[in-house]
Design goal:
The chain has a six-stranded mixed β-sheet. About 35% of the residues lie in helices and about 25% in strands. The longest helix is centred in the N-terminal third of the chain and has 16 residues, at about 45-60. It starts with a strand and ends with a helix. By secondary structure, the chain is of the alpha/beta class. Helix 1 links the parallel strand 1 and strand 2 (about 25-30). The structure holds inosinic acid (IMP).
Length: about 200
């Protein structure tokens, strides 16, 4: 069985990926290969950040590897928060604790969109794969819009503010099973899996 590193230590993401690729690949986490550094993500696009992480593993540990980077892009804000999605409040000078990070990020977003009629947004995931000497990218996008008040307590991140096209509920209201079928991440992972199974 081939070893493939997923440049992440997120237990939930690893479990999801292993359920899909586990028959064909021995999917290892960063911790599994002894990589304990916080790999720098200094890019200005999801693609750059994902590639940076995958390259780091290939260069320092020698394994074929894939890495992902995701975030929210809001049309009226020129694509913000984008690669700053996880640290949007901090970037905007707010005091943030581990416990209020998601709320603080959403509050900044709502303030920036106050009075704005164009609420179009999308979640995007990019996966960079370094495999048998070549680099490949897989993108997943889910289009939708940002509502004016948080709704729902499921999910994470910006889920209480995002209603995907074709639905009335936010990602935080619809339950993980529905969300995980239509999400940006699911779409990118599906493309990755298709590539790996047919190559
Ligand atoms: P990551 O690259 O998957 O760690 O995502 C970076 C950040 O984007 C997260 O910390 C969230 O703020 C935001 N984000 C990514 N995916 C989602 C999602 O499915 N729902 C809500 N927020 C998300």
């Amino acid at each position: 069985m081939k070893t493939l590193v997923f440049a992440s230590n997120n237990a939930h993401k690893l479990e999801e990926i292993r359920a899909i690729l586990g028959n064909k690949f021995d999917v290892k986490s960063l911790k599994d290969i002894g990589c304990n550094v916080d790999i720098p993500e200094t890019g200005t696009t999801f693609r750059e950040n994902a590639l940076q992480k995958a390259r780091y593993v290939k260069e320092h540990f020698g394994f074929d590897c894939f890495a992902d980077d995701s975030g929210l892009q809001v049309e009226a804000l020129g694509g913000e928060p984008g690669v700053y999605s996880a640290r949007y409040a901090v970037k905007n000078g707010r005091q943030v604790t581990a416990g209020n990070k998601d709320d603080a990020n959403m509050d900044v977003l709502l303030e920036k969109l106050a009075g704005e009629e164009n609420r179009k947004a999308c979640f995007r995931t990019c996966i960079a794969l370094i495999y048998e000497g070549e680099t490949h990218f897989f993108d997943g996008v889910v289009e939708g819009h940002i509502i004016t008040e948080k709704r729902g307590d499921g999910g994470f991140g910006y889920d209480p503010l995002f209603v995907p096209d074709g639905y009335e509920k936010t990602f935080a209201e619809m339950g993980n099973e529905v969300k995980n079928n239509i999400s940006h991440r699911a779409k990118a992972v599906e493309k990755l899996a298709e590539f790996l199974f047919f190559n």
